[in-house]
Amino acid sequence: MEKYKVEEHNHQLTAEHKKNFEFISSRIPDAKAIVQKLQEFQIAIPSWALGTGGTRFGRFSGGGEPGNLEEKIEDVGLIHALNKSSGAISLHIPWDIPNNAQSIKALAAQHGLRFDAVNSNTFQDQQQQQHSYKFGSLQHVDKRVRQQAIDHNIEVIRHGIELGSDSLTVWLSDGSCFPGQLNFRKAFQRTLEGLKQIYAALPDNWKMFVEYKAFEPNFYSMTVGDWGQSLLYATKLGPKAFTLVDLGHHLANANIEQIVALLLEEGKLGGFHFNDSKYGDDDLTVGSINPYQLFLIFNELVEGMDARNMNHATDLAWMIDASHNVKDPLEDLLQSVEAIKIAYAQSLIVDKKALVIAQEANDVVTAQEILQHAYRTDVRPLVAEARLLAGGALQPLQLFRTLKVRENLIKERGLKTVATGL
Ligand code: LRH
Ligand code: MN
């Protein structure tokens, strides 16, 4: 993405933007500090969500998909050039094995990208694999299957070390589909034993994220099925283990913002897989279904992180985990990053002192008014100003379309390339 194209785009929009930015800056305390925080706040893009996703009923590719890891890094680099908010990529192994780690690392650096958490995969059987994960991986009744899964995770850590990553995400599809199929206690003990061996292989400065999920692909029990189970594992593993909250991994109507507040209070919240959903693990665009919930989650995050003097930008892992069935993958990711930055900005303008006074006075009405005033404030000029100061586009999606990026990718890569991933 040539810089002059971004500057040309911004030149046309700057006057309108400045008017909007001055309007909101005059109505909130310390807009400058908020813009600074927004500039620092980077969200990692999943390497497995740069192509068209699908369901068991079908997959409708949009063309121009990245056919290898190099092209995936170029696509994340393009997103980052547009929004200056996606300065990291999260790899999934073996979907994206970096054959030559040094050249991959150099290519990423050229695009201003670092490598966030690396993800293991013991939920699919690979071609040359000796033992099947049909009945689980770390929970498996057969020690050889468990050892195979442990070895894979240690291999993933090795790839991460080569790339300069400093965290491993373990999501286990393990569980059962029918009552009586699984001994829950043994499954828990075996899984904990396996995670301990993986934990022992972590470099000193690394973190391990234990991602929980309520159901799918198992539909009776999941061996890491909710925040409580993940917290149990993370607590028994040690100080380098944390829970990972994927917004789509909860039972209906779960109060995710309360879960976040408590995991933060326990010092065991490691990070997020942001997406949105109406029913199950729908992996939809962040903020597309329930943007108020996303705001309430960030409100708890900012309140809890400030209470622990945590650095908003670096002390938790901010990652997207989405799948695109009907939208252009890059447009979908641009919308998701924007939704996350807007929710973060809204949470930064909450009048926290007044909220505490209302809460301590059981003034329920005023407490709601304070939150919804922030939620109903159009903070988009703050997010845009942060982008502008960072050299990004004032309207990334608009510029993506104006420059016919997808059309050019289709010319370059064709209609048939398929990106590895979901
Ligand atoms: C499981 C999950 C997990 C990934 C996978 C791609 O639903 O959220 O984070 O490994 O999606
Ligand atoms: Mn996830």
Attribute tags:
48% helix, alpha/beta, binds manganese (II) ion, three-stranded parallel sheet, binds 6-deoxy-beta-L-fructofuranose, 422 residues
Describe the protein in words.
- Helix 8 (256-265) runs parallel beside helix 9 and helix 9 (291-307) crosses helix 10.
- The strands form three sheets. A six-stranded parallel beta sheet has the order 4-5-7-9-10-11.
- It is an alpha/beta fold and 422 residues long.
- Strand 10 (269-274), helix 9 and strand 11 form a beta-alpha-beta unit.
- It is built from 15 helices and eleven strands.
- It is 48% helix and 9% strand.
- Residues 48, 119, 171, 211, 213, 246, 273, 281, 321, 422 line the site of 6-deoxy-beta-L-fructofuranose.
